[in-house]
Amino acid sequence: MSAAALCSAPSAMAGSVYKWTDENGVTHYSDKKPSKDAEKMKVGTTASKPANQESQSGEGDGAYTVKPELQSQIDALEKKQQIDEVQSKIDAETTEAMNKKQARCEALRGNMKTIQENARIQVEEEGERRYLTAEEIVEKRAKIATDLQENCSE
């Protein structure tokens, strides 16, 4: 019984890792087979503490040696994940900025329509309502037109 347990111990330490490249050319690694195109890789570890401290995981007393080629793949995967996270953040910020710009342009177009369709424009300043003078209307119209041209022309 104990001989069978000892013989099976090394195989329990090893695991299968699948490697595949998606349609965008990105290489992925997983312990679960994602598709029939995945390449099965055998990953082995040793239970003893390594003599070379640089290649251990550094976690506790039972650290395992990681093969250099596997470590470089792990490092590349971690770097890719970091890049993907940064890119996702940039994409979200870009989308947010575009949405804000679009909302501002819609507001400017609405203001231009209002100022063109109405001879009298009422504004509130310091808690009091008043009508814009003809000169103020011309100035506002010019300002809105400039803002639209500079920020919203497509």
Give short descriptive properties of this protein.
154 residues, alpha+beta, two-stranded antiparallel ribbon, 3 helices, 5 strands, 53% helix
Summarize the structure in words:
The protein has 154 residues and is an alpha+beta fold. It is built from 3 helices and 5 strands. The strands form 2 sheets. A 3-stranded antiparallel beta sheet has the order 2-1-3. Strands 4-5 form a two-stranded antiparallel ribbon. A hairpin with a 5-residue loop joins strand 1 and strand 2 (27-30). Helix 2 (68-117) packs antiparallel against helix 3 (134-152). The radius of gyration is 32 Å and the shape is rod-shaped.
Can you describe this structure in just a few lines?
With 154 residues, the chain is an alpha+beta fold. Helix content is 53%, strand content 16%. Helix 2 (68-117) runs antiparallel to helix 3 (134-152).
Low-confidence stretches: 1-13, 50-60
N- to C-terminal distance: 77 Å
Question: For the CA atoms, what is the radius of gyration?
Answer: 32 Å
Average residue pLDDT: 79
Strand order of the largest sheet: 2-1-3
The string of secondary-structure elements, in order, is: HEEEHEEH
Proportion of residues in extended strands: 15-25%
The total strand number stands at: 5
Strand and helix map with partners:
Elements: H1 2-13, E1 15-21, E2 27-30, E3 39-43, H2 68-117, E4 122-125, E5 128-131, H3 134-152
Antiparallel strand pairs: 1-2, 1-3, 4-5
